Amino acid sequence: RMDTDCNPMELPNNTEFEEDSDYRDFEGTDVKDMRLEAEAVVNDVLFAVSNMFVSKTLPCAEDVAYINVETRERNKYCLELTEAGLRVVAYDFDQTDDRLQTPYHETVYSLLDSLSPAYREVFGNALLQRLEALKKDSQS
């Protein structure tokens, strides 16, 4: 009898890959659903801001979603997420101001880094803690 290292039937049901954009639009469509993308953005950085959620009042579409964020400095922003990236569209939740000409950021990290020194500090500390943990793991 041949032993196998891994029986696929014994693997836990891991649904995490659905969040990964590489897999999400794999089958037959190249259109990203921006609401899913926005949820992933929120989940990524929620720990480093006071509050962050996808807007339920502004319309989400395949090509645009809006994210409300409150920094640790208590500043509120409404962010627009499109294929071009993220940008501030208002200085309050669930608002857009067409007169605002703010630059697009490729990542939520770069956008928040430019808006919130407290975000930068919390994110940096979390990164250091992860690196320390990896270092400990590799030494044991």
UniProtKB/TrEMBL annotation:
Residues of the GSKIP domain: 34-134
GO annotation terms (biological process): regulation of canonical Wnt signaling pathway
Pfam families from the UniProt entry: GSKIP_dom
Coiled coil start-end: none
UniProt GO molecular function: kinase regulator activity; protein kinase A binding
Cellular component, GO annotation: cytoplasm
Listed InterPro entries: GSKIP, GSKIP_dom, GSKIP_dom_sf
Gene3D superfamilies referenced in this protein's UniProt entry, alphabetically: Hypothetical protein (hspc210)
Similarity annotation: Belongs to the GSKIP family.
Protein name: GSKIP protein
